[in-house]
Amino acid sequence: xxxxxxRDRALRILEIRDHSAKELTDKLVRKGETPxxxxxxxxxLCELGFIDDERYAAALARRYTAKGYGAGRIRQELAKxxxxxxxxxxxxGALPEEKNELxxxxxxxxxxxDDRKELKRFTDRLLRRGFTWSEIREALARNRAGEGIWDG
Length: 152
Fold this sequence. Notes:
Blueprint: H1 4-16, H2 21-30, H3 35-48, H4 53-66, H5 71-80, H6 88-93, H7 98-108, H8 116-128, H9 133-142
């Protein structure tokens, strides 16, 4: 039987922001609960619908896409937060096409891509945001960015 204290603690944590089941379990253990009690509490919250990793993964993917991050970075965040790998592709598949976001970023930065150094700095930033080199290259070509600066 779960104590009222652990239930209240878990609900207070969830009032601040959503968590994956693993995140909440880990947080409860760090706050002094036993792993067994933490897992039981999280299972109880899952039953009630307060924790839903599928919903959480989709929301996280939407949030990071809106911030201009690519699928690679979103996968990294989902892994960091303990979301089951089986839920990743569903969450990413429900997003608008990544190419549109990448085109928006390229168009917004066209004016600053005057030389090879600036173009490299920009593409490095996109790589860190989780876009692949082939996606970046295609977006640059679609938007005719860096013409004459980047050879091959």
